[in-house]
Amino acid sequence: MKLFRKDKEFYSKVFKLAMPIAFQSLITIGVNMLDTIMVGQLGKKSLAAVNFANSFIGIYHILCMGLGMGASVLVSRYWGIKNSKNSSNKEEAGYALKQTVALMLRLTMGLAALFAIATIIMPETIMSMYTDDEEIIQLGTNYFNYSIPTYFFLGASLVTTIVLRSVGQVKLPMIVSIGAFFVNMGANYTLIFGHLGFEPMNEAGAALGTLIARIFEATCIIFYLLYVDKKIYFRLKDMFLKTRSLIGEYFRICIPVLISDGILALGNNTVTIVIGNYSTDFAAANAITGVTQQLSSVVIQGVCQAGAIVTGQTLGTGDKEKTMQQAWQFLGLGFGLGAVSAGILMIISTPIINSYTEVSQSVRDLAEQLMRAISLIIVFQATNSIMTKGVLRGGGDTKMLMLADNVFLWALSIPLGYMAGYVFELDVFWVYFFLKIDQVVKTIWCIIRLRGGKWIKKISTGKNQSLPAEISDKKMLTSGK
Predict the structure, then answer these.
(1) What percentage of the chain's residues is helix, strand, coil (to nearest 5)?
(2) Are 52 and 135 in contact (CB under 8 A)?
(3) Cα distance from N-terminal residue to C-terminal residue, the chain
């Protein structure tokens, strides 16, 4: 199999999916960067506090991504079956698609409620996981107080966006994100510093501005799903569909993704805790570089999701050989995009770091070291992300991905990073490098897994009792084996 080949149809399809997703990610990151720059004007403790609070909210964000991407594996496959010329299971696949969306939304709202309750009950305890600085804890707690409803709106818009993308609906979420960016910018300008007759709210203003933007985003996306979309054709009454027949298959595919992303989120937060307890300057530098790293890899994230969608849809048609060839092409894309991202990162890092005029020179110097480490790691991160979060996940290989993601993180990255910082007291460059060493190891593992071919799994629609007997009997949809 070739990493690169002349295949205009493949690359056109990938980038038609990936670029709107990437642009939407760029807008989202722009919102985060805007928050970070504005809050940075309040000082490094405010910057660290908001970053720590958002690290916890980020756990919820990643769990929702797990729910959404897990559902996307099923939705892409069912959509491929539904639109395949040779499929005899089209109606059953369409019904299972609606069941998947209903289950996903119910679980997302339940998860939002758990995080909201935790944030209400113990905000100081949550903040104390990241730092022992009392001032930072109080600033972060104030930020939390205005962030609680955000969980519900963030979750609803995020998972709905992912399933819409799975059936090729990529433009609307992008347009909505552009609108949310301007809503957030206006709200931040008004509330953080106190303009247009409002009193300055500082960190709380940033939280409230984000909440207003999330409400706008969720309202637009959910309205489109329930009243406009003609592909999934999910309506409000479908929230009450009986989903018992699909629960087993949904959990088989989605729960490993949820567990994987959940434990990965905890692992990433452990990395943040290691950094936060190392020094306040290191924590502030990490807050600056984190947004910049996301900015340099937006196209990679778009290709990740395109990889899952294309893989699932191709398998839905039953063409295993074509799926394998596309997988190797995605691997080549990973290497290429990683190298480009590293170059972009080196170009934009200094101007972005220097824009944080209110932080000390020592923080900016640490940020420069982190940028060099990120530029090295991002080549490997791009490659394995496109494979793990895209192709292999789209093939249904969620259990092995759950193991790989977390074994490498907890057995290698966190212990080695901790030792580099606290035992050997190495420079920040090496501390960060070892905290991200799992990205290198996972890249090697992905190539081995891809060659074996065992990542392509069967997916069932379940036994749908409410469908006619002649449809219900056709239960198993193969992946092309």
Answers:
(1) 80, 0, 20
(2) no
(3) 18
Residue 1 lies in a domain: no
CA atoms of 391 and 385, how far apart (whole Å): 9
Alpha-carbon Rg of the chain, whole angstroms?
22
Separation of alpha carbons 403 and 412, rounded Å: 13
Cα distance between residue 117 and residue 126, in whole Å: 12
Helix axes 280-296, 44-82, angle to 10 degrees: 30
Nearest CA-CA partner of 243 in 105, 99, 78, 107: 99
> 480 in a domain, yes or no?
no
Torsion region of 459: left, alpha or beta (phi above 0 gives left; psi -120 to 50 gives alpha)? beta
The answer to whether residue 233 is domain-embedded is yes
Taking the C-alpha atoms of residue 181 and residue 179, their distance in angstroms, rounded to an integer, is 5
Asked whether the beta carbons of 114 and 146 are under 8 A apart, the reply is no
Domain that holds residue 215: 9-460
Beta strands in 260-412 (DSSP E): none
Q: pTM to 2 decimals?
A: 0.70
Residue 332, Cβ density class (10 Å: 0-12 exposed, 13-18 middle, ≥19 buried): middle
Say how many residues make up the chain.
481
pLDDT, tens digit, for every residue of 125-142? Answer: 988 888 888 888 888 888
466 domain-assigned = no
Q: How many domains does the chain contain in total?
A: 1
State pLDDT tens for residues 288-333: 777 677 767 778 888 888 888 888 878 877 778 888 888 888 998 8
pLDDT tens figures, 42-63: 777 888 888 788 888 888 888 8
Q: How far apart are CA 283 and CA 432, in angstroms?
A: 12
